[in-house]
Structures are given as structure tokens and as C-alpha cells.
Amino acid sequence: MKVIICKNYDEMSQKAFEIMKEVVINNPRAVLGLATGTTPIGLYQKMIKDHKENGTSYKNIRTANLDEYKGLGLESDQSYIYFMRDNLLSHIDIDLNNTHFANGLAEDGDKECERYNALLEQMPRDIQLLGLGSNGHIAFNEPNTPFDSQTHLVDLTESTIKDNARLFNSIDEVPRQAFTMGLKNIMDAKKILIIANGKNKAQAVYNTVKGEVTELVPASILQLHKDCTLIVDEDAGALIK
Ligand code: GLP
């Protein structure tokens, strides 16, 4: 795994942007695996700015998002599809029909997992962007998720519910379940870009980079990927210097 430690959040976002832009420029029909959370917001802002100022086009780009809360759809501003439109997709020239999500409102969870998984197989990702949970989760693959997992419905852990509560009016509103790509789907991407910032990610970053490759730390599987870059700010990188 290639590790880049940056001075601050802006530098982390800039480095991540450069890698993302290279993929889009080299292949205007690329498939991007995208992530939600507060970490990628700076990167998305740079993509929007670059699109507006330099005309980088997403006309033929396709995207697939990592995960979605069960029970939430576009009409909820807490859904991940809403987040992605608000923070990136509605501000670039991408065709929204080419942007894919697990459907949080699907009635039959198993069928929805099958549908999304089949879709992912048809559109291998050229790059997969990831954030990192403070417990080492990636997407919503919580500790103990099998490394060979595919799209599935998960019960969120207490620590993830607590972490994500800051974005809801109250902890009671945080959905308890979510659809997520599995670890195998993530590892199938040609290139992986994982970003993390802030002190509360330092231990998870250490476990991801220097720890044992174990299902207890889902992100540790990335040590086995051929082309994975981790970009962190100084706080998140404090234990791996
Ligand atoms: C959620 C998402 C993850 C994300 C994580 C970290 O649990 N499912 O994909 O990486 O939060 O979020 P943040 O970037 O806000 O710290």
C-alpha cells in the first residue's frame, strides 16, 4: 500500500483529487466507485471546481456508490443518494442515469443485494474511493465481515451509529441497517484510493497499514490490493510516521 501523509485536510483532498482526475482524463468512460461521509467532501468540491473552471467532463463517466441506509431514499436529505447529488453529482455534467446506488427503499433486501451485485459485476470500477470508519470499517463492512463478502444488508454497530449520529437530528433517527458493497466487491476495483483525516481515525489508520490482515479490521484487507493508495492528514497519520 502506498501511504501519503499530508499537512492538513486541504492537502489530503488535493492529492486525492489529482489521482481521481488522472483516472477521468485517461479514460473518459471510466467507472468511479464513490463514497459518502464528511471525509470526501473536500475532494468532491475540488472535482466540481475543476469541472467548472477547466471543463473536465463526466459525460460518459459511470459511478457506483458503496452503500446506502435501509429505509432512506432521495426524498430524505440523510440518504446517501441525496448526499451524492448535493455534494457532487448535480454539479458536474454526469448523466444521473449513469450513477448507481443500492435502493434503500427496496422492499426485498435480498433481491436488492442481488440486483446491485449483478450490476457491479457488469461495471468493474477503475477506481474505488473509500473513507475509513473509526473502527476500521470500509463502506459499511463492520469488523468481522468476511473478506469474500459481496453486496449485503448489515446491522450497523453501536460505534458506527454513534459516529454517524452527528449528521442526524438525534441518534434515534440513525437507521440501524444499511446496504453495502462487500469487501470482495471493493477489492475487485482496479485501483483503490482511501482517505482519512482527524485524530479519531489515527488508530484505525495504524491498524489498516501496520496491523495484521484480519477480518477484525476490515480495511486491513487493503494491504493485499495491488494498487492501493492511502492519503491521510497529519492527525490521522500520527501513529504511522
Ligand atoms: C460511514 C460510511 C463510510 C465512511 C464512514 C466515515 O459509515 N458508510 O463509507 O467511510 O462513515 O465517515 P466520515 O468520512 O464522515 O468520517
The number of helical runs is 7
The molecules bound to the chains, other than polymers, are: 2-amino-2-deoxy-6-O-phosphono-alpha-D-glucopyranose
Q: End-to-end span in angstroms?
A: 15 Å
Which sequence of strands runs across the widest sheet?
1-10-9-6-2-3-5
Q: Can you tell me the CATH topology?
A: Rossmann fold
Would you identify the CATH architecture?
A: 3-Layer(aba) Sandwich
Helix- and strand-based class? Answer: alpha/beta
Radius of gyration, taken over Cα atoms and rounded to an integer in Å: 17 Å
What is the N-to-C order of secondary-structure elements (H for helix, E for strand)?
Answer: EHEHEEHEHEEHEHEHE
Strand content: 15-25%
| The CATH C-level class name | Alpha Beta
Low-confidence stretches: none
- Report the strand count: 10
Domain count, please report it: 1
The biggest beta sheet, please? 7 strands, parallel
> What percentage of residues falls in helices of 4 or more residues?
25-40%
Q: What spatial form do the alpha-carbon principal axes imply?
A: globular
What is the residue-averaged pLDDT? 97
Characterise this structure:
The protein is 31% helix and 17% strand. The chain is α/β, with parallel strands linked by helices and 241 residues long. The chain has a single domain (2-226), classed as Rossmann fold, CATH 3.40.50. Strands 1-10-9-6-2-3-5 form a seven-stranded parallel β-sheet, covered by helices on one side. It has a three-stranded antiparallel β-sheet with strand order 4-8-7, with helices on one face. The structure holds 2-amino-2-deoxy-6-O-phosphono-alpha-D-glucopyranose (GLP). 2-amino-2-deoxy-6-O-phosphono-alpha-D-glucopyranose is lined by residues 35-39, 66-67, 131-133, 139-140, 160, 164.
